[in-house]
Amino acid sequence: xxxxxxxxxxxxxxxxxxxxxxxxxxxxxxxxxxxxxxxxxxxxxxxxxxxxxxxxxxxxxxxxxxxxxxxxxxxxxxxxxxxxxxxxxxxxxxxxxxxxxxxxxxxxxxxxxxxxxxxxxxxxxxxxxxxxxxxxxxxxxxxxxxxxxxxxxxxxxxxxxxxxxxxxxxxxxxxxxxxxxxxxxxxxxxxxxxxxxxxxxxxxxxxxxxxxxxxxxxxxxxxxxxxxxxxxxxxxxxxxxxxx
Length: 244
Ligand SMILES: [Zn+2]
Fold this sequence. Notes:
The protein is an alpha/beta fold. The protein has 2 domains: 3-67, no CATH class; 85-106 and 122-243, 3-Layer(aba) Sandwich (Lysozyme-like), CATH 3.40.80.10. It is 40% helix and 11% strand. The strands form 2 sheets. A 5-stranded mixed beta sheet has the order 5-4-6-1-7. The longest helix has 19 residues, at 48-66. The radius of gyration is 18 Å and the shape is globular. Bound molecules: zinc ion.
């Protein structure tokens, strides 16, 4: 049995923990293992059985948090709103992503990954003014916080959801200047080695036409260390061509 398994044999009372502002500090060992250090850790596994076990433990942990996401989404005070969006610029760029998850995966799972990966990172910093306070994304919809980094999420059947208002900065591409001036569109699918569905592509095309932008870029064109939105996006016959 690995150390990671011990960490995820969580002894916490999950029905209570998310009512406390400091829930993320109590869960920090698991958050570090399964989210912040995850990509470094998966490279170190030599044994495929252990790697698979670790992956399953990760899914289990993120699912546990996602099942309690509603408490975290409701726990904030309205006067904190807009603190992260003062640098929003006119929109001149669309950035395309994929969720790299199975299309059937509950969107709460994706939102939880963004919560743990992006927002918790700021709030666990002991130097930061936010340390120990209730997590606040600055992004509110229908009196609930939103933790999605993407403005739109498109499903394989061509339907979509706007998950972030245009006026909010999505923390999606690892480049603050681009984040401030872009709209992020995510295909909810694993497109690492396959094409999006025709219906999803058509929806993306229509959404993009609502904006008057000079750039349509894949995440990987801004941040070369990622392959997002997959290996078939670029090139003369890449699916990017369909969106231009
Ligand atoms: Zn991406």
